[in-house]
Amino acid sequence: MADxxxxxxxxxxxxxxxxxxxxxxxxxxxxxxxxxxxEVVQKYKDYQDSTEDNRKExxxxxxxxxxxxxxxxNELAKMFS
Length: 81
Known about the structure:
This protein is an all-alpha fold. Helices cover 83% and strands 0% of the residues. It has a domain at 33-81.
């Protein structure tokens, strides 16, 4: 997950390349992704701590949150392309 932080930081460093309207949207997206990352980490911890009874549900919740995060990172990348 450390490399994910580096990617987010790299994009944050490039915000000045964008026009004013895009800058604000990008800053909001970056903050949103940082919060989502925290949620993904927590879901992963929940999955690791889950019992046999709720492991499948915890795994599905983690997978969904991780997929949402990946989609968000892809959206951020598109803002710079």
